[in-house]
Amino acid sequence: MSRTLGVATIGQAPRDDIAALFAAHAPAGTRIVLRGCLDGLTDEAIAARPPRDGADTLYTRLRGDRDVKISKAFVIERAPETLGLLRADGCDAIVFACTGEFPPLAGDAGVIYPSRVLNGLATALLPQGRLGLLVPLPEQAEKLKAKWTRPGLEIVAEALKPSATPEEAAEVARRLAEQHPDLVAMDCMSYTPATKAAVKGALPVPTILAITATGRVLNELLA
Fold this sequence. Notes:
single chain; 223 residues; alpha/beta; Rossmann fold; 2 domains; four-stranded parallel β-sheet; three-stranded parallel β-sheet; 8 helices; 9 strands; globular
Protein backbone atom coordinates (compact mmCIF):
# COMPACT_ATOMS: atom_id res chain seq x y z
CA MET A 1 0.00 0.00 0.00
CA SER A 2 1.37 3.40 -0.98
CA ARG A 3 1.98 5.78 1.93
CA THR A 4 2.24 9.57 2.05
CA LEU A 5 4.81 11.42 4.16
CA GLY A 6 4.18 15.08 4.91
CA VAL A 7 7.14 17.35 5.57
CA ALA A 8 6.65 20.79 7.12
CA THR A 9 9.68 23.03 6.72
CA ILE A 10 10.18 26.24 8.67
CA GLY A 11 10.97 28.10 5.45
CA GLN A 12 9.46 27.72 2.00
CA ALA A 13 8.79 25.01 -0.55
CA PRO A 14 10.26 23.68 -2.68
CA ARG A 15 13.12 22.11 -0.72
CA ASP A 16 14.10 19.35 -3.11
CA ASP A 17 17.18 18.54 -0.98
CA ILE A 18 15.10 17.75 2.12
CA ALA A 19 12.40 15.94 0.15
CA ALA A 20 15.01 13.75 -1.58
CA LEU A 21 16.70 12.78 1.70
CA PHE A 22 13.41 11.77 3.30
CA ALA A 23 12.41 9.88 0.16
CA ALA A 24 15.70 7.95 0.33
CA HIS A 25 14.84 6.65 3.81
CA ALA A 26 11.10 6.09 3.36
CA PRO A 27 9.71 2.78 2.12
CA ALA A 28 9.72 2.41 -1.67
CA GLY A 29 6.78 4.14 -3.30
CA THR A 30 6.19 6.63 -0.49
CA ARG A 31 4.78 9.92 -1.77
CA ILE A 32 6.48 13.00 -0.27
CA VAL A 33 4.44 16.17 0.22
CA LEU A 34 6.43 19.19 1.39
CA ARG A 35 5.02 22.52 2.56
CA GLY A 36 6.71 25.50 4.15
CA CYS A 37 5.55 27.62 7.07
CA LEU A 38 6.51 30.74 5.11
CA ASP A 39 4.92 29.67 1.82
CA GLY A 40 3.09 32.46 0.03
CA LEU A 41 5.05 35.26 1.70
CA THR A 42 7.19 37.79 -0.11
CA ASP A 43 10.77 38.47 0.90
CA GLU A 44 9.57 41.83 2.24
CA ALA A 45 6.93 40.21 4.47
CA ILE A 46 9.52 37.83 5.92
CA ALA A 47 12.05 40.62 6.46
CA ALA A 48 9.39 42.60 8.34
CA ARG A 49 9.43 39.94 11.09
CA PRO A 50 13.15 39.55 11.93
CA PRO A 51 14.36 37.50 14.91
CA ARG A 52 14.20 39.42 18.19
CA ASP A 53 17.33 37.80 19.64
CA GLY A 54 19.39 34.61 19.56
CA ALA A 55 16.64 32.59 21.23
CA ASP A 56 14.20 33.67 18.50
CA THR A 57 16.58 32.88 15.65
CA LEU A 58 16.16 29.96 13.28
CA TYR A 59 18.23 29.14 10.21
CA THR A 60 16.66 28.05 6.94
CA ARG A 61 16.87 28.42 3.20
CA LEU A 62 14.18 30.22 1.26
CA ARG A 63 13.06 28.45 -1.89
CA GLY A 64 15.92 26.03 -1.41
CA ASP A 65 18.93 28.22 -2.13
CA ARG A 66 19.21 31.33 0.08
CA ASP A 67 20.48 31.21 3.65
CA VAL A 68 18.37 33.36 5.96
CA LYS A 69 17.71 33.97 9.64
CA ILE A 70 14.01 33.94 10.53
CA SER A 71 11.91 34.47 13.63
CA LYS A 72 10.94 31.34 15.54
CA ALA A 73 7.89 33.16 16.93
CA PHE A 74 6.74 33.91 13.37
CA VAL A 75 7.13 30.24 12.40
CA ILE A 76 5.12 29.17 15.47
CA GLU A 77 2.29 31.50 14.43
CA ARG A 78 2.11 30.01 10.94
CA ALA A 79 2.89 26.33 11.67
CA PRO A 80 -0.67 25.18 12.59
CA GLU A 81 -1.95 26.19 9.15
CA THR A 82 0.89 24.29 7.45
CA LEU A 83 0.21 21.16 9.52
CA GLY A 84 -3.49 21.44 8.70
CA LEU A 85 -2.76 21.58 4.98
CA LEU A 86 -0.57 18.46 5.23
CA ARG A 87 -3.37 16.60 7.04
CA ALA A 88 -5.73 17.68 4.27
CA ASP A 89 -3.21 16.21 1.80
CA GLY A 90 -3.92 12.81 3.40
CA CYS A 91 -0.48 12.29 4.91
CA ASP A 92 0.02 9.06 6.88
CA ALA A 93 2.86 10.63 8.88
CA ILE A 94 4.09 14.21 9.28
CA VAL A 95 7.52 15.47 10.29
CA PHE A 96 8.22 19.05 11.38
CA ALA A 97 11.59 19.47 9.70
CA CYS A 98 13.46 21.58 12.25
CA THR A 99 15.65 20.55 15.17
CA GLY A 100 14.54 23.50 17.31
CA GLU A 101 12.35 23.00 20.37
CA PHE A 102 8.74 24.02 19.87
CA PRO A 103 5.80 24.39 22.25
CA PRO A 104 2.67 22.32 21.65
CA LEU A 105 1.10 23.50 18.39
CA ALA A 106 -2.51 23.26 17.29
CA GLY A 107 -2.90 20.15 15.15
CA ASP A 108 0.49 18.62 15.99
CA ALA A 109 -0.77 15.36 17.53
CA GLY A 110 1.43 12.55 16.24
CA VAL A 111 3.81 14.90 14.43
CA ILE A 112 7.46 13.80 14.54
CA TYR A 113 9.86 16.46 15.86
CA PRO A 114 13.50 15.75 14.90
CA SER A 115 14.77 17.49 18.05
CA ARG A 116 13.17 14.74 20.12
CA VAL A 117 14.57 12.02 17.86
CA LEU A 118 18.09 13.47 17.97
CA ASN A 119 18.00 14.09 21.72
CA GLY A 120 16.66 10.62 22.46
CA LEU A 121 19.35 9.01 20.32
CA ALA A 122 22.10 11.05 21.94
CA THR A 123 20.80 10.18 25.40
CA ALA A 124 20.86 6.48 24.56
CA LEU A 125 24.35 6.63 23.04
CA LEU A 126 25.93 8.98 25.59
CA PRO A 127 24.33 8.74 29.04
CA GLN A 128 27.19 10.82 30.36
CA GLY A 129 30.29 12.40 28.88
CA ARG A 130 31.04 15.28 26.53
CA LEU A 131 28.64 16.03 23.68
CA GLY A 132 29.81 18.11 20.75
CA LEU A 133 27.21 20.20 18.94
CA LEU A 134 27.36 21.63 15.45
CA VAL A 135 24.89 24.51 15.13
CA PRO A 136 24.18 26.78 12.14
CA LEU A 137 24.79 30.21 13.72
CA PRO A 138 27.07 31.51 16.50
CA GLU A 139 24.18 33.35 18.17
CA GLN A 140 22.33 30.04 18.59
CA ALA A 141 25.12 28.29 20.49
CA GLU A 142 24.17 29.19 24.07
CA LYS A 143 20.45 28.60 23.53
CA LEU A 144 21.04 25.21 21.92
CA LYS A 145 23.55 24.17 24.57
CA ALA A 146 20.86 24.90 27.17
CA LYS A 147 18.39 22.77 25.19
CA TRP A 148 20.72 19.77 25.44
CA THR A 149 21.71 20.20 29.09
CA ARG A 150 21.15 17.22 31.39
CA PRO A 151 22.95 15.77 34.43
CA GLY A 152 26.23 14.07 33.62
CA LEU A 153 26.60 15.74 30.23
CA GLU A 154 29.15 18.40 29.31
CA ILE A 155 28.40 20.27 26.11
CA VAL A 156 30.74 22.01 23.68
CA ALA A 157 29.61 23.69 20.48
CA GLU A 158 30.88 25.17 17.23
CA ALA A 159 28.96 27.07 14.54
CA LEU A 160 28.89 25.55 11.04
CA LYS A 161 26.69 26.98 8.30
CA PRO A 162 24.94 24.14 6.43
CA SER A 163 25.99 25.81 3.17
CA ALA A 164 29.69 25.61 4.14
CA THR A 165 32.14 24.04 1.72
CA PRO A 166 33.74 20.70 2.64
CA GLU A 167 36.94 22.57 3.49
CA GLU A 168 35.08 24.96 5.80
CA ALA A 169 33.23 22.07 7.45
CA ALA A 170 36.51 20.24 8.04
CA GLU A 171 38.05 23.33 9.65
CA VAL A 172 35.10 23.70 12.06
CA ALA A 173 35.29 19.97 12.82
CA ARG A 174 38.97 20.31 13.71
CA ARG A 175 38.13 23.08 16.17
CA LEU A 176 35.47 20.88 17.74
CA ALA A 177 37.89 17.93 17.85
CA GLU A 178 40.25 20.01 19.99
CA GLN A 179 37.53 19.98 22.68
CA HIS A 180 37.53 16.14 22.72
CA PRO A 181 33.82 15.28 22.42
CA ASP A 182 32.70 11.67 22.89
CA LEU A 183 29.76 12.08 20.48
CA VAL A 184 28.73 14.78 18.01
CA ALA A 185 25.18 15.86 17.12
CA MET A 186 24.61 17.92 13.97
CA ASP A 187 21.76 20.11 15.20
CA CYS A 188 20.09 21.37 12.02
CA MET A 189 17.91 19.73 9.36
CA SER A 190 19.85 21.45 6.57
CA TYR A 191 23.03 19.52 7.31
CA THR A 192 23.44 16.79 4.70
CA PRO A 193 25.25 13.44 4.53
CA ALA A 194 27.94 15.22 2.49
CA THR A 195 28.45 17.73 5.31
CA LYS A 196 28.65 14.86 7.77
CA ALA A 197 31.28 13.13 5.63
CA ALA A 198 33.42 16.28 5.64
CA VAL A 199 33.03 16.56 9.42
CA LYS A 200 33.86 12.90 10.01
CA GLY A 201 37.07 13.22 8.01
CA ALA A 202 38.40 15.64 10.62
CA LEU A 203 36.52 14.44 13.70
CA PRO A 204 36.72 10.64 14.09
CA VAL A 205 34.06 10.15 16.77
CA PRO A 206 30.46 8.91 16.37
CA THR A 207 28.41 11.65 14.69
CA ILE A 208 24.61 11.71 14.36
CA LEU A 209 22.82 13.62 11.63
CA ALA A 210 19.31 14.92 12.27
CA ILE A 211 17.74 14.32 8.89
CA THR A 212 18.93 10.74 8.42
CA ALA A 213 18.18 9.78 12.04
CA THR A 214 14.65 11.13 11.64
CA GLY A 215 14.28 9.47 8.25
CA ARG A 216 15.04 6.06 9.76
CA VAL A 217 12.40 6.58 12.46
CA LEU A 218 9.87 7.52 9.80
CA ASN A 219 10.76 4.36 7.87
CA GLU A 220 9.77 2.34 10.93
CA LEU A 221 6.44 4.17 11.11
CA LEU A 222 5.60 3.88 7.42
CA ALA A 223 6.94 0.41 6.58
